[in-house]
Design brief:
35% helix; globular; Rossmann fold; alpha/beta; 21 helices; 3 domains; four-stranded parallel sheet
Length: 572
């Protein structure tokens, strides 16, 4: 048990020196008497609320509830606003700013008188960013997920944000619905605070956080507007104070078993391909190895149990009522490491004790899975020597073994301008290729990977095609989309050498992505390839461009992921 005088914050507030005097005087300026915080755990509440992030519009209130729990436990809460990373509005993509929030998180926790942290996030990039920074700072930490929004509704149909937007956009382009229906859909898709209620990146990553053991049990599945979400926030505030007193830091929770269980969870959920990049980056901050090969190995033994869109039928609200993530994890048994510790101070197995499943169609039993193997596959071959991924449970089964001629687009603008041109001769058997959309080429590796199908094919009834890119894809998206091709085209990866008409083979069962071009021809093409100019000349973009790593190793900044000193500040 850590004594008050040994608290990290005591370096700022305790003692008789001039600095301590100054810190206490400024506390009085804030309207506080020293006894309100001196000798008590100081808890930093890092809040990603903003007026432009609809997924987090309720987190101002949740921060108050966390603070209430901190006060009740005898701690002192301090709220810090941090980058919001609004998935909807931030361009070119919030992925470009994930590492910026991770840096901000680490440096706030390092530079202020904070003994423990509660992290409030949920919209796609905020979960990994907050946890990456917190892992580097290594204080006692709890994550409070924002929670999924309520189901969407339109003309008696239940809608899933993202997934049904993409589906009906294709129907609009095909001419099967008109402007009136499209306008009604706009009003029915997102009906409450909270992140996407499909198994997109947000639900995937908050579930991964729970599997890592950094949330209270059951936290990730609670709908954002449910009163249980209020209670979970307050309970997190209560618990973090005890974690500080117990000295339960994040590094004691985030061990190799935790990351393995997070991967298993993502695969059993049929989760977002984005989780591959984020978990590899998060493990890197814990200085633990996690690779694409680990995802593929674990996938072969992990059944998909969550029948949730886009790979399934239901939504997160249904998942919560069916038993939530605890119910699903309880089905996995020996696939998990149940003896490791979580932020509760108990073992993972103890946290799952008594979990039940109430609807076995939403959360399938292991003998009746949605798919026998995890919903992601890692592909390799001469087109992706460092790997690529596909969410095959969300693709048309007949396309999982396919060879077709490439139609290449160099950048997203080129794709937008030419995709509907009948002169390109794109058929349902073609392989649509997008280059220059990776970490550097995008820039930021935007979610362009669900490449559009030409309108004339949509009108003929085509709803899926093989598509290949070095981009990412929204976790709410679907289709036979090969993503994260590494190395990316912008740095000279083989994707940069593909030409119209080249045959490309996709074989998910064999984990192959192959360009059917001879090695000699590829050598000749490489000699003709000219490296592009850097995307940025100054500012954060230049820092990003110079230090970002490739998708297969997590797209972190190399100077943040490497081991080394980042010393504690001298508070006196």
């Amino acid at each position: 048990m850590i004594e008050p005088e040994n608290l990290r914050s005591h370096q700022w507030y305790g003692g008789d020196g001039l600095r301590a005097f100054s810190h206490r005087a400024r506390s009085r300026q804030l309207g506080l008497n020293p006894e309100e915080h001196l000798g008590k755990p100081v808890i930093g509440i890092l809040n990603t609320w903003s007026g432009i992030n609809p997924c987090h519009m309720h987190l101002r209130e949740r921060a108050e509830q966390v603070a209430r729990g901190v006060w009740q436990a005898g701690g002192y809460p301090v709220e810090f606003p941090v980058s919001t990373l609004s998935e909807t509005y931030q361009k070119p993509t919030p992925m470009m700013y994930r590492n910026l929030l991770a840096m901000e998180t680490e440096e706030i926790l390092r530079s202020y008188p904070i003994d423990g942290a509660v992290l409030l996030g949920g919209c796609d990039k905020t979960t990994p960013a907050l946890l990456m920074g917190a892992a580097s700072a290594d204080l006692p930490t709890i994550f409070v997920p924002a929670g999924p929004m309520l189901r969407g509704h339109w003309r008696g149909e239940v809608l899933g944000s993202g997934t049904d937007m993409w589906r009906y956009w294709d129907e609009k382009r095909a001419g099967t619905i008109g402007e009136c229906e499209w306008s009604e859909l706009e009003g029915g898709l997102a009906r409450s605070p909270g992140h996407c209620m499909t198994m997109g990146t947000a639900s995937t990553m908050t579930s991964a956080a729970e599997a890592l053991g950094v949330t209270l049990p059951g936290a990730a599945s609670i709908p954002a507007v449910d009163s249980a979400h209020h209670r979970m926030a307050a309970a997190s505030g209560l618990r973090i104070v005890d974690m500080v007193r117990e000295g339960l830091t994040l590094s004691k929770v985030l061990d190799p078993r935790a990351y393995a269980d997070a991967v298993t969870t993502v695969l059993a959920l049929g989760g977002s391909t984005n989780a591959v990049i984020h978990l590899i980056a998060m493990a890197g901050r814990s200085h633990l190895p996690l690779t694409l090969a680990d995802f593929d190995r674990i996938a072969r033994d992990t059944p998909v149990l969550a029948n949730i869109r886009p790979g399934g039928q239901y939504l997160m609200e249904d998942f919560y009522y069916a038993g939530g993530l605890r119910g699903l994890l309880a089905q996995l048994g020996d696939l998990l490491h149940l003896d490791r510790i979580t932020v509760t101070g108990r073992t993972f197995g103890e946290d799952l004790a008594g979990a039940l499943v109430h609807d076995h169609d939403v959360i399938r039993p292991v003998d009746r899975p949605l798919a026998a193997q995890g919903g992601l596959a890692v592909l390799r071959g001469n087109l992706a020597p460092s790997g690529a991924v596909i969410k095959y449970v969300a693709a048309a089964p007949e396309l999982l073994r396919h060879t077709g001629p490439a139609v290449v687009f160099h950048g997203y603008r080129d794709l937008q301008e030419r995709i509907n041109d009948p002169a390109l001769g794109i058929t349902k058997d073609s392989v649509v290729v997008l280059t220059d959309a990776g970490p550097k080429g995008g820039p930021g590796m935007p979610e362009y990977g669900m490449l559009p199908i030409p309108e004339y094919l949509l009108k003929d009834g085509v709803r899926d095609m093989v598509r290949v890119s070095d981009a990412r894809m929204s976790g709410t998206s679907y289709g036979a989309c090969v993503l994260h091709v590494a190395p990316e085209a912008h740095v000279g990866g083989p994707l940069a050498l593909v030409r119209d008409g080249d045959l490309i083979t996709l074989d998910v069962a064999e984990r192959v992505l192959r360009l059917e071009v001879s090695d000699e021809e590829l050598v000749r093409r490489r000699a003709e390839w000219t490296p592009p100019e850097p995307k940025f000349e100054r500012g954060y973009g230049a820092l990003y461009y110079e230090h970002i790593t490739q998708a297969d190793v997590g797209c972190d900044f190399e100077f943040l992921s490497r081991p080394g000193k980042n010393p504690e500040p001298n508070a006196h």
